[in-house]
């Protein structure tokens, strides 16, 4: 109408005033439409576990793991998400209590998997370690795993899902070997040492979970099962995604896996860059304090994930229709 | 006790100067590191709670060092920290009363898993009322865990713990209060659970109670079961030096002294079981669970239960009766007095579980009743003749 020469000038100006709004509406609509087309991730509604594992970089990586742990804990607190440490292995030496060798935290609020799923991957840190005399910047990394969490209450309330051998959540107790680290010997009244560690081995996949956080064997067993279930479900899901991705690679689409570097935290420049959404913020402190800047990054990643999911969906669709022809 | 290797001590000291102290009692680095972590958490928390403290930084460290020094002299961690988790409960521990063991936790939880999960008022699911007797209750851990496991399944639950040690009874009562206050047990536990002082060798070992008519459905006991010989040779030094002997070694009966001769060495810890079986009969128990020292004692207790015509079936449980690892023997059994007895789980022989027909119905779970009756000539091990 705006371009139509016969249109009344007044009407034309009115219409062109509306145009930007309409365009914006249209954009929003199309984004919403895209979003609604993307299939919901099967774990989206679940609570999650976050596992932090320092990688290359020794002490620096271990320290950074504890920075990240704190970042997520504060984030949870300020967003009203219930979060609790399931296990945390710190360095045994004095003064090194904040060097994490491995940590698992549990975020109990439903939907946390969806919220945090974009955090999975390798987080890289660039800074000058306190011990570095020549002032050189070191680069180290921590990998973050995001796993679907099935707290015991959830398992008890949904026995069908958990007892169905075809479900991702199913673990056949027969496949799991339990080792109690109670020292060999007479046991019972003869011994009062606290040996509460539990090790579970999922025989078909060789997945091993050891838990020695608590003085309670019972609680270690419960946590170990929780982590085992989470790791197996995630692995099954990833295997399927991998298969799909392999087909898409032929179609020229690359995917990021759990080994890919997703984000860099640079101390000198006080900068955080997410390499997927390409967002860069110069507010390192606020990010590490789990503040709005972290939200901003997570939102940008969410959009990036959605666009990737959409791309994948289109390719799958095209492949399917090609096969039909 | 063998000396610790110097290399181990050095390695420990390089990690943390407190670790060598803990190593003296822990023996291996992994446990020492775990204990250090638990002590540290406790020291930090206790110092933060202490209002008289102004120099928090200095004091949690001195508190930690004090605890590690105590531990280096062999004092059990549970007495130093003052508690031990048991199931989801927190059990207070004090010198003079035995520390609850993980094996006890494991068998107590296993028997609870035998009882039906949903227990309405319907005929089919059995009565919604249950009475449980815990003899030699100590800290009260078994009685309290029973309440924790069963309060949602039974509308009416009566649990009585008995111990002849006054300090144990007082501690058990504190434990009831403590766990209710912490929200780990429901309010009703205060009415459902009782602890009284009593000697199981006395004539009225179980006080007559009007509400139960002197009848109890389940009898559980972790009695002193260590023989005087084993006490000196098999127990850990920390157990011997810090835990009450009366909780570990049963009294030697005057009538049996001498009569047992050389057999005393092994069977000196058995003396309480015939008494427990007698009480079980008197109170009409349908199910009993006794903790024992090892497989040999388990088989002797099975033998005793076999002579007592009351029991229709019996099982031996190992330390972790609910663990059935693949590859391990699928179905294990032993033959006692010509009868096959099923053995459950992994670890050392740890408990004897016996039931009457009524008990079997109450449990409503497939128990191999018939096994108990297979005479030896039909037993697979001897069938070839
Ligand atoms: C091995 S401890 C068990 C404590 C607790 N049930 C547990 O599992 O941790 C044995 C308990 O039996 C008590 N005891 C020993 N002889 C007894 C007797 N004749 N009558 C009643 N209790 C007795 C001891 O005081 C001790 O608390």
Automatic annotation (TrEMBL), chain A:
Residues 182-198 form the Prokaryotic-type class I peptide chain release factors domain. SUPFAM superfamilies: Release factor (SSF75620). It holds the Pfam family PCRF. GO terms for molecular function: translation release factor activity. The keyword rRNA-binding does not apply. InterPro entries: PCRF, Pep_chain_release_fac_I, Pep_chain_release_fac_I_sf, Prokaryotic/Mito_RF. GO terms for biological process: mitochondrial translation. GO terms for cellular component: mitochondrion. It comes from the Eukaryota. Keywords: Methylation, Protein biosynthesis. Belongs to the prokaryotic/mitochondrial release factor family. This is Peptide chain release factor 1, mitochondrial. It comes from Ramalina farinacea.
UniProtKB/TrEMBL annotation, chain B:
It comes from the Eukaryota. PANTHER family: HEMK METHYLTRANSFERASE, MTRF1L RELEASE FACTOR GLUTAMINE METHYLTRANSFERASE. InterPro entries: DNA_methylase_N6_adenine_CS, HemK-like, N5-glutamine_MTase, SAM-dependent_MTases_sf, Small_mtfrase_dom. NCBIfam families: hemK_fam. It comes from Ramalina farinacea. SUPFAM superfamilies: S-adenosyl-L-methionine-dependent methyltransferases. One of its GO terms (biological process) is DNA restriction-modification system. This is peptide chain release factor N(5)-glutamine methyltransferase. GO terms for cellular component: mitochondrion. Its EC number is 2.1.1.297. It holds the Pfam family MTS. Residues 130-232 form the Methyltransferase small domain.
């Amino acid at each position: 109408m705006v371009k139509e020469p016969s249109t009344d000038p007044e009407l034309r100006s009115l219409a062109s005033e509306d145009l930007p709004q309409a365009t914006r509406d249209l954009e929003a609509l199309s984004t919403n439409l895209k979003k609604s087309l993307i299939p919901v991730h099967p774990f989206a509604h679940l609570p999650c576990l976050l596992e932090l594992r320092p990688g290359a970089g020794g002490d620096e990586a271990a320290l950074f793991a504890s920075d990240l742990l704190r970042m997520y804990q504060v984030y949870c607190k300020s967003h009203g998400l219930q979060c609790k440490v399931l296990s945390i292995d710190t360095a045994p030496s004095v003064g090194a209590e904040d060097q994490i060798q491995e940590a698992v935290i549990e975020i109990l609020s439903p939907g946390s998997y969806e919220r945090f799923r974009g955090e999975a991957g390798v987080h890289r840190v660039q800074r000058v370690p306190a011990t570095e005399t020549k002032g050189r910047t070191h680069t180290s990394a921590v990998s973050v795993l995001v796993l679907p969490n099935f707290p015991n209450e959830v398992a008890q309330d949904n026995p069908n899902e958990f007892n169905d051998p075809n479900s991702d959540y199913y673990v056949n107790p027969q496949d799991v070997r339990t080792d109690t680290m109670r020292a060999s010997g007479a046991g019972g009244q003869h011994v009062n040492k606290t040996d509460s560690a539990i090790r579970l081995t999922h025989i078909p996949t060789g997945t091993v979970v050891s838990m020695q956080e608590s003085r309670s064997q019972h609680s270690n067993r419960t946590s170990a099962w929780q982590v085992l279930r989470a790791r197996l479900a995630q692995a099954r899901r990833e295997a399927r995604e991998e298969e799909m991705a392999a087909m898409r690679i032929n179609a020229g689409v690359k995917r990021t896996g759990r080994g890919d570097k997703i984000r860099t935290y640079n101390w000198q420049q006080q900068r955080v860059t997410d390499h997927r959404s390409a967002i860069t913020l110069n507010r390192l402190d606020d990010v590490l304090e789990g503040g709005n800047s972290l939200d901003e990054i997570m939102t940008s990643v969410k959009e990036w994930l959605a666009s990737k999911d959409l791309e994948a969906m289109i390719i799958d669709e095209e492949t399917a229709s090609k096969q039909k022809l | 006790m063998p000396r610790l290797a110097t290399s181990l001590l050095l390695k420990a000291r390089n990690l943390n100067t407190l670790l060598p102290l803990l190593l003296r009692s822990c023996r291996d680095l992994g446990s020492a590191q775990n204990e250090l972590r638990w002590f540290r958490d406790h020291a930090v928390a206790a110092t933060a709670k202490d209002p008289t403290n102004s120099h928090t930084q200095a004091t949690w460290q001195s508190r930690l060092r004090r605890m590690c020094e105590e531990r280096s002299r062999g004092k059990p961690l549970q007495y130093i920290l003052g508690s031990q988790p048991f199931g989801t409960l927190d059990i207070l521990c004090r010198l003079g009363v035995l520390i609850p063991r993980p094996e006890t936790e494991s068998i107590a939880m296993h028997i609870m898993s035998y009882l039906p999960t949903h227990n309405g008022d319907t005929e089919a699911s059995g009565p919604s009322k249950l009475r449980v007797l815990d003899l030699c209750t100590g800290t009260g851990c078994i009685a309290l865990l029973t309440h924790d496991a069963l309060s949602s399944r039974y509308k009416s639950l009566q649990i009585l713990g008995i111990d002849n040690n006054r300090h144990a009874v007082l501690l058990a009562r504190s434990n009831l209060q403590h766990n209710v206050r912490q929200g780990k047990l429901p309010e009703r536990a205060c009415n459902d659970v009782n602890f009284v002082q009593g000697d199981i060798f006395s004539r009225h070992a179980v006080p007559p109670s009007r509400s139960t008519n002197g009848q109890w459905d389940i009898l559980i006991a972790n009695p002193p079961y260590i023989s005087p010989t084993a006490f000196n040779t098999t127990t850990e030094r920390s157990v011997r030096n810090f835990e009450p002997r009366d909780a570990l070694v049963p009294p030697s009966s005057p009538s049996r002294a001498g009569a047992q001769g050389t057999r005393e060495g092994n069977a000196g810890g058995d003396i309480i079981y015939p008494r427990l079986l007698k009480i079980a009969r008197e109170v009409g128990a349908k199910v009993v669970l006794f903790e024992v020292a090892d497989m040999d004692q388990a088989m002797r207790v099975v033998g005793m239960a076999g002579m007592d015509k009351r029991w229709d079936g019996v099982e031996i449980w190992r330390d972790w009766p609910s663990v059935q690892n693949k590859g391990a023997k699928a179905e294990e059994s032993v033959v006692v007095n010509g009868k096959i007895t099923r053995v459950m789980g992994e670890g050392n022989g740890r408990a004897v579980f016996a039931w009457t027909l009524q008990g079997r119905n109450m449990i409503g779970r497939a128990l191999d009743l018939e096994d108990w009756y297979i005479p030896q000539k039909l037993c697979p091990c001897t069938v070839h003749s």
